[in-house]
What does this fold into?
Amino acid sequence: MNEPNGIRGTFSKQRLAGMKRLLQKKYREEEGLFIVEGWKSLAEAVGAGIRFRTLLIVEGAADDAALLERLIRNADESFAVSEKELADVTDAVTPQGIAAVMPMFDPEAALRSMAPEQGIIVAADSVNDPGNLGTIIRTADWFGAAGVVIGEGSAEPYNPKTVRATMGSLFHLPVAHGVPLPAFLRRRRQEGWSIITTEVNGSELLGTVVPPERSVLVIGSESHGVSEEISSLADLRVAIPKFGTAESLNAAMACGIILSHFTMRRS
It folds into this structure.
């Protein structure tokens, strides 16, 4: 790695300490920045047109020179670092040799872009586990959802565990975080959207439901489900039939089952 590639020589200890702070939610929110680790996630971000503020690369970590050059061109600044330095500012147990700092998404802009003629928006109500939330985002992407709305009280999409769990899907569809969910759902109902909640004791079994043209599917926490306030706003309360003895379904798994059914019924 050298100057012609656009990589600078030294990333100071002071700047490393500043970047490490972004592993904490408080400082991510203060600075409006978050860290993304790994070649695949960064390649997906570049493909989505998202520019990096800072790119850190371990010398010799790249086996794709073309991708490396593309990532460097997409960064405001790039630095060579040691494996230890990268490990200090990332959350992964085994860092992949590359990480970047990038700006958080504008939630209002994300919400404005979720207005298809038909489709499904996935909303998270108090989904507290970062990995679960990341998998919900990835699942919503797989099934072509119009976007993901993350209500207040849920995990945030910028937690390193959430970012990793999305496997790059965080950059494929609009994601709005910290949204007052009841107000959002009321507004969508006024615009003609149907609100569907997932509930263990839902009044409709999944197999009987024909999804409306425009729907918001609300996924609740594994421990408590959707809140009473959110449930009261539902047009449909859907239950996934149970055939075994498990106490509950993983929230992301429930999301995938319902989106699969809705997608198949539409197609």
The mean pLDDT is 90. The longest helix spans residues 251-266.
